[in-house]
Each structure stands twice: as structure tokens, then as C-alpha cells.
Amino acid sequence: MTERSAVGGMVPCTYVVVGASHRSSNPGLRDRIFVADTETISFLSGLAAAGVPQCLVMSTCDRVEIQAAAADPGAAGRVIRNALARRANEADMAGEDPFYTLTGEAAVRHVFAVASSLDSVVVGESQVLGQLKEAHRAALQTGCIGSELEALLQAAYATAKDVRSGTGIAEGPVSMAAAAVRVARDLHGDIAGTEGLLIGGGDMGLLMLEQFRHAGMTKMTVAASSAALADSLARAVGGHAATFDDIEDCLVRADIVVSAAGLGRYLVTTGMMRAALRQRRHKPVFAIDAGVPGDIEPEIDRLADAFRYDLDDLEEYATRNREARNIAADQAWAIVERHVAAFGRNRAGRQAVPALAGLRDRFERIRREVLAGGEGLDAEELTRRLVNRLLHDPSEALRRHASDGDIRGIADAACELFRIGRNDDGDDGDPDAPDDAANGNDDR
Q: Cα separation of 225 and 229, whole Å?
């Protein structure tokens, strides 16, 4: 999973994230590049064969992104982007590039933010963390999780836990979903006797449906833009699959409709709802528009037996406000930044271990060589030769960098590493003392 350097250590991998989300692309493109459960193994195996052995794919209605770790992040990013682009068509790729590519610390911050639901359509929803964990499990089964990616994911889970326990960021979405259940009970009574219809698979829609399932709903249908996406979503919620073409028929049976597609066009129109109510003999329908932008025509409110709520309505009903949500989001971002910094420090420390081990091995080898060639010499001469041997290569390196005009950085690093100029047991060091190695007197 890593590459070996010339000195025998392992080249550290850099984190890479490439994808398209609700922030960067339209739903049509995300539908085309969607990686179904049945495709995950072949898709990840293809990336591994192309030079990205550590990778996972998060594929939902709101985002399709690959999180990876690679020794060459530039090459890995191109491989991943090309793999996604092949799944899209030319019309999707016209104009601005719909794919984002993040590397290094920016990629780490993004993964932590995704896990903490700070990059979701509705900040604070809980579905995305479960989706990340499911993507993690699938990549493990495919053999595409190495130590670097595993460390990133475990750190992301810890960040998400701290965000949820240290802020009220989850209260808004959960309270809105709970409010939806209360409204549905006021309208229908026992939720166990109702049938649900989920249109689209946006995270907030899935959260709403989960709340209805907890309240007792057992019959539900999931409608998506394609049969493959619908099948994947239906398996996740334990319901039946349908496509957007089937919505009009599905409305006849649906007591509770949750829409979270955000296509920018109305998937449920007033005419469709009026016809469904007629066939239902005016049994009421509770419709929740969780799409951004909305999926359900607002004029449906004028129908006597249709009750349409959007997220603002539910938030007001739940007596939550945006100011409290924004404060929680700011607190959550501060937690994410602390975790990003700590993760970077810990990773840098781990990456220094092979170099330190190699340095110790080299010094020990030189020590043995000096002892072997110094039979009969006293301690002063042996130690002088040892110092000269140890300083020979660093001295040569300093001279090379001095001739290139690039001495300041490496000289400062040498002073830091060897405490030059600092009081160490009463010895500040003598910059004017002769240096046999630097003067070319190296008893080798």
C-alpha cells in the first residue's frame, strides 16, 4: 500500500478526495456516475489496478466521491477523475468541471466535515455518517483499505462523535424529523397503519423515513431516477423500489410522502395530487418537501386533503431556529479544525519513526566500523574518528546546499536537530572550534 524510499523507509501517502456533490454538480450528473452496491467491488478493483490501492466510494443521491490515500496524489486524482468522467456523458461535462479534487490537509478536513454532517444539504443530519461507515465496510471487503486510509476514517469517526456530543448540531434535523412524525400522528393516528413514499434519496429524506420507521411504519416505497438507484435505496430502508415515472401511481397508496430529490423541478404537481386524492376517496396525504430546491408544488396546499410542509415549516413547528443551528455549526467547525491539526501532528510523528530508525542504524554501523578499525587506539582518538565519520555526510550536504544558494533552511534544521547554539549542560557550542570533518580531515 506504500512505496519504499531509497533509504529503506516507506514513502508516506497523501490523502485525496475526488467527487461531485450537491454543492458542485446537478442531480442528473450524480445519477449517471452513481455507483450501485452491485458495482462497488468492480469499481474499486478498477481503481486499485490503475494505481489507487487505498480507496473507498461514497455513492448517495447527494454525493458520489472517492476518498483515497496515494503516494502520488496527482496521478491518483487523475485516475479517479477519469473513472468518474467515463460514467458521465458529454452534456454533463460541458462548461464548468463538476468534480472537486482535494489533497493533503484539505482532503482530511473534507472527510472530517462529511462525517460530521457539516457538508450535508441539511447540516447535522445523521445519515451521512452511516453511509461513510457502509462505504468503509465495502472497501474493506474489497481489500482497498490500507493503514493510512484506516487511520483517516477512524479519526473522522472520532471527530463526528465529538461534534455530536459537544454541540447541538444534530438537534435541528432530528427535531424536524420528530416534528414530522407528530404532525403525521395528528393527521393519521397510528403510524403503523400508514404507507410511505420516499421520492429521491437525499440524506434529510432518509432521516425522515427512518423516524417514521421508528414510529411503526412498515410499508414504504422508494422512487428514484433510475431502477438501480431505487433498488439500492429500497434495500437500505427495507421497502419497494420504483422510478420517478411511477410517482403518480404511488401517490394513490401513499399516506405520507417525503420528497428529497432537489432536481429543480416539481416531481409532485397539484394535478397529480388532485388525481391521487380522488382515487383515495379524499383520504388525507401528508407531504414533506425536504428537497433543495423543492420537489412538491406549493399550490398543493390549496387542496383540502393535502397537507404540505417544507423544512422551514417543520423547523418552526419544532421551535428551532437557524441562529441556534448556525451557532452549533460554528462550534462543530472549531472541533473539526482541532481534530485536523491533531491528526496532522500525530501523522507527522508516525512518519518520522522510519527516518529516526534509519538514522540510528546508520550511526550504529559507523560506530562498529570505527571500533573495528581502531584496535590499539585510545578513547580520545576513537571518539575523534567517530565524530568525524558521523559529521562527514552532513558536512558534504551543507557544502552542496551552500553552493546552490539554499543553505538557510537546511542550516536552521541542523541547528534545531543538534541543539547548536543552545545551552545544553552548560555548553553553548563553540562556532570557532575546528571541525576536522568540515575541513576534510575525515579518518575513514
A: 7
SS (H, E, C) 226-256: CHHHHHHHHHHHCCEEEEHHHHHHHHHHCCE
414, 431 in Cβ contact below 8 A?
A: no
The pLDDT of 368-382, averaged and rounded, is 82
Coil, strand or helix at 99: coil
Q: Write out pLDDT tens, residues 122-137.
A: 888 888 999 999 999 9
Q: What CATH number matches the domain at 172-320, 3.40.50.920, 3.40.50.10490, 3.40.50.720, 3.30.565.10?
A: 3.40.50.720
DSSP string, 6-29: TTSSEEPPEEEEEEEETTTS-HHH
**What grid cell was written down for 440?**
576534510
pLDDT tens sequence across 213-222: 999 999 999 9
Annotated active-site residue 144? The verdict is no
CATH superfamily, with its number, for domain 3-169+325-348: Glutamyl-tRNA reductase, N-terminal domain (3.30.460.30)
- Does 3-169+325-348 match 172-320 in CATH topology? no
pLDDT score recorded for residue 386: 85
Q: What is the pLDDT of residue 12?
A: 78
SS3 195: strand
All cell numbers assigned to 221: 416505497
**Out of 13, 55, 61, 144, which one is annotated catalytic?**
61
Euclidean distance between CA atoms 149 and 147, whole angstroms: 6
Q: What would the DSSP string read from start to end of 365-434?
A: HHHHHHHHT-TT--HHHHHHHHHHHHHHHHHHHHHHHHHTT--HHHHHHHHHHHTTTS-BTTB---TTS-
Q: Mean pLDDT highest for which of 94-98, 216-220, 392-396, 405-409?
A: 216-220
Bridge partners of 69, per DSSP, are 15, 54
Sequence ranges of the domains in the chain: 3-169+325-348, 172-320, 373-444
Q: What is the pTM of this model?
A: 0.69
